[in-house]
Design goal:
alpha+beta; four-stranded antiparallel beta sheet
Amino acid sequence: MSTRLAFHATTAQPRAARRDAARDAIRDAARDPRAIPPFPHGRVAAAVATALLVVVLLAGFRSAPADVAASTGAARGLCFGHLDMFERVAANATDRWEICFRRGGAARVRVVGDGHTNLDCVVAAPSGRVVARSEEAGDLCVLEWRPRENGNHRLEIRNRGALANAYRLVTR
């Protein structure tokens, strides 16, 4: 199972311009299943994101200090702050994510698809026990629970359709 780590960079672009660029990239990716949405910050930022990923993986996943955790949202159940990113799941495929949550805090995962196919979402605790699921028709998943265990929870996003689905993943 592959593990994905999210990296969110900020730019000098206005928020509306970034949102419009992301929406256009999702629309283009949905039209052509072979297309990969462009990285909005260029090659230099992609290299920086890759370097940060390597540093994090080599350093290991440790708890953030309390002041950093409180400022990034980790005090609400997440170990390292929230995610807000766009991704794409292939037709009839499953994306798997490992997201660290703390015991006792409120956990929330929201997945919003592009409207082309049905997405089902399941979250399992580190022990393997399913703690939240959303299998309704459509491509909106809102999962809320209180983690009973510290550690990496497994999020699976299943695409039940014959087309790729570009989605937004947000954790709080």
